[in-house]
Amino acid sequence: MKHIFHEIKKHPQNYAVGIILVLSISFLFYFYNGQPYVQRQVVYLASGLYLGWSLWHHYRRGDITASIMMEYLLLALLALIVVSTTL
Hints:
4 helices; 87% helix
């Protein structure tokens, strides 16, 4: 737990973007409650932003590899599949 707070203090901009993204997507998803089509669009947007931000983050750190790109792509696709089938 101590390591997490140290990492947040070291790179606060990375975590601020993540928190803003989560809160914004949660608000949009709640605001459009009862409209599955719009909620799916919000999920697509969130997955795309998550994928783009994650790849950009690793690119900036200089440790991006094909396996990291594949991992984030598969995670975004899994989220799309799980959420889209439940709406």
